[in-house]
Amino acid sequence: EAEVAQSPRYKITEKSQAVAFWCDPISGHATLYWYRQILGQGPELLVQFQDESVVDDSQLPKDRFSAERLKGVDSTLKIQPAELGDSAMYLCASSFPRNTEAFFGQGTRLTVV
Amino acid sequence: SQKIEQNSEALNIQEGKTATLTCNYTNYSPAYLQWYRQDPGRGPVFLLLIRENEKEKRKERLKVTFDTTLKQSLFHITASQPADSATYLCALVGTTDSWGKLQFGAGTQVVVTP
After folding, report:
1. CB B80 within 8 A of CB A35
2. Is B43–A101 a contact, with Cβ atoms under 8 angstroms apart?
3. CA atoms within 13 A on the CB side of B22
4. Which of A44, A91, A102 sits opposite B100 (nearest CB)?
């Protein structure tokens, strides 16, 4: 069964360092999402792509976060510099365009120390 | 401001009984509502979707109702099993949101004991 692949699964980084997460969506899924989930809360959308274009990044802290999906397939989310409050699970999801079901990856658990 | 509220207290239920979870929303005009299951340390898994013009949806032992007047969705797991133990998230997409932009509640943990 096709899955959304994310790496790394776990990442520990020091405050003020740069960190990057990678996501490979299910083949054929033109829509890709990055969510952040703080422990005990629901996922919060950071950025949504349609192919290589950003559809919504209204909740992305653009002073330190960036996301790209250069060829409209896999995607990278970067944080620079990382802050203690960035500790969370970062989830990638994908779907067919205008399809309502999102498929989530296993996530990257980030701990900033 | 927009709010999606789910019971924060865990729901403890005996195997075989029906678990009922609540999702309430305010300041929202939903196009559709979804329910996801999330196991510890894993990403959410889609379960059911219900549109704003639908009252009820079923899938195997799961049932979802949607009352846009009460601004509430109920999620039922009938004949619950220990394997149903997980956190259940509701998520909405508003009519003015970009397609697929899910706004999640905090989730309710369900614990099914044998």
Report:
1. no
2. no
3. 11
4. A102
Query: How many angstroms separate the CA of residue B75 from the nearest CA in chain A?
Result: 17
Residue B7 confidence (pLDDT) above 70 = yes
DSSP A21: E
CA atoms within 13 A on the CB side of B26: 4
Which chain A residue lies closest to B39 (C-alpha atoms)? A106
Specify the pairing of strand B19-26 against strand B3-6. Answer: antiparallel
Tokens of B6: 């789910």
- pLDDT at residue A76 is higher than 90: yes
Please give the sequence-ordered ranges of beta strands (E in DSSP) within A42-113, or none if there are none. Answer: 44-50, 53-56, 65-68, 75-79, 88-95, 103-104, 108-112
CB contact under 8 A, B106 and A93: no
Mean pLDDT, chain A, integer: 95
Which of B3, B33, B38 is the best mutation test for A, with the most CBs of A within 10 A? B38
Confidence bin at B100 (pLDDT 50/70/90): confident
Per-residue pLDDT, A99: 67
Q: Residue B1 to residues A54, A95, B4, B35: CA-CA distances in angstroms?
A: 24, 28, 10, 22
Say how far apart CA A38 and CA A97 lie, in whole Å.
27
- Checking if the pLDDT of A68 tops 80, the result is yes
Per residue in B9-21, pLDDT (tens digit) is 999 999 999 999 9
